[in-house]
Amino acid sequence: LYPTISSDTYNKVWTDAQKDLDIQLQREREEFLQPEKDRVKVFKMLVTSYIKYMQIFRNLEMAYDQLIHQQKRTVIRQVLDGVMGRILEVKKEMVGLDNSEFHYIDNILEDLKLLPQLDSEDIEVPIPRYFIKEKLEVLQQREKILDQILLDAGLQTQVNKPLKAMTFEEAIKVIQVAERARQGRCRAAFMKQIYLEEKKDRQTKLQVQMGPGPDDAATCIQKVWRGYIQRKKTEKMREEEMIFLGMVSICLFFRLFPMYMADVETGCVEFAPGSGAFDPGMTEQGNVINQFLIHNSRTLEVSYSWNKEAKWRNQWLLDEGWDFLQDHDPELIKEEKREEVEEEIRVQVDELMQKKLENLKLAVDGEKSDKQKKGKKSEKVRAAMMSLVHRTIDSLYRELAEEGLLIKAKTVNLSDYVGEYSYLGTTLRQADTEPMPSLADVRQLIALYGILPLGSQTVHEKAPLVKALLLAGPAGVGKKMLVHAICTETGANLFNLSASNIAGKYPGKNGVQIMLHMVLKVAKQLQPSVVWIGDTEKIFSKAVPKAEEEMNPKQLEKILPKFLKALKAQDRVLLVGTTNRPFDAKLKPFCKVYQKIILIPRPDYASRFVLWKHIILQNGGAITNLLNISCLAKVSDGFTQGHIVQAVQAVLSELRLLQMTRKPLKTAEFMTSLARQDPVYKEEEETFKVTLRAMLTGCLSSSPAMSLSRHI
């Protein structure tokens, strides 16, 4: 009946995380509010805060996932979302100072006594498990509905795993093995019992011969003392149970728990909003560049406002052995429900007023249409849009799925995107050589800009908003895999608006506009959602090839900015574009749509070494001394993850897997398979760098929020 050990353990994890958070806030108040002009020093302060918040984030997420007390979880959830938002705020300022989305902080990690090789968790962005756990039933039901729709439309076939037939001899062998194992276990237990009985008899005879000794006296004393202690514990437990049942006076309660006689109140750390905007471009003229860190934070209010109302927090963190049911506090629920009722009434009143306003607008529009015959095209579009208003979300969902615009995301976790960190980034920069970003850096950016905002409504509303993300890189580096990983980690719907997928599905001048309106309505209603545009450079291409004229890829070019404008902070909808030929697009409209541009490079040596081992084992291979992984990592320089996967799958056929026990894998087998593929040549990589430099420069001139990546 009493709280388990795990509850006490994770209560301590929560307490320690809260203490670390208080210390971090105090440090920010002391350091960040002091005027500082040194860009390098401020960047180091930012990176240190980033790592500290990441550690706090990990501990809070662990406590939230393991604790079962609902009101505790509510408080932890609020702080957890605030810390996630604070991480995104600090990341934004790091990008502004470093002029790059990718940072090389191995020297700062060493100062903090953290090594990336050993403490990679300290810089890896954790994915909160509640993103999926708290809506698992809804996601499973939605998946069943989508599978049925796709089956009915003929877009998906029923996949039944074939059952392997077992012969009569194999069945007898399995039964024999199980029965022999059972008999062996019974025989071992019987022999152990005989051995223990014989050992006890020998010890008894020896004690009788030698008489009582010091050990016997100590044992007797221990028995008496333990009995006394146990009786006291039992008496206390009985009194606690009586208190819980309300059968003991309050005087006895305070005699048992004197610590509750004091009025325990928590402190509150608040930061009044102040002036002083941060302008990274003016720091060289002497402006202070670090006071923004607290003044402009929107997530600190979310993280710590709970301290004002949670005067019972310290009582939760004290000895709670008497609260063995982990029950709720009814007063907190009443206070919370009062606010909810007020909000519900306010929403209902707002809806009634909006309906009246819409009816008035329709009446006015009807009078104008009788008097004027202009604007017939806009009226047709409006009529089409109004027809969608009266349709249910289920019908729109079914139509989009039947048209192939709403697709089923593959089950891929972000951790499946294997890649190591760049451990020599700072060293290379000191030698005036700009390092290429690593795959682990790409994984971090996907988690920060894609997964965390989509998974948490609070983070999406309060943290810096990213509506559109562009993943650019050669074919085979895993761009589509990252799109599916975002959907898997957040439970998001996936809409495929690639030019090749929407061609001919909604014809007419207003067809594309109606299609986007349907997608936007379903994506908002069933958020989170990801709208994916593959080969997005075709939409902004300078010239359409003759072979693609019927596909009309440029029909989304003018509508996409309006689509993004319709997305508000409360709409957890992310536009993700992928491209392996960004140099074919017109840069100005391209940069107008995509707010963040992430270059996904070829894997470096460390990542290739890990990839070869991971992919070989994943496909059923075994690594022996005859297989030199280091050699494969070296000779595969210039090849992408897709090339390595194809090479491994070509070698590890069913026949080769059967032969592996007597004929181990050798390095030459994979090298031969890899040699049949074309790598990413340096000329293509240089073209990527030049194009993305131009894109980011154009984005900088059009939007101050964009940053010029130093690695380009």
UniProtKB/TrEMBL annotation:
GO terms for molecular function: ATP binding; ATP hydrolysis activity. Residues 469-584 form the ATPase AAA-type core domain. Gene3D superfamilies: 1.10.8.60, 1.20.5.190, P-loop containing nucleotide triphosphate hydrolases (3.40.50.300). InterPro entries: ATPase_AAA_core, IQ_motif_EF-hand-BS, N-DRC_Component, P-loop_NTPase. Keywords: ATP-binding, Nucleotide-binding. Coiled coil: none annotated. This is IQ motif containing with AAA domain 1. It comes from Otus sunia (Oriental scops-owl).
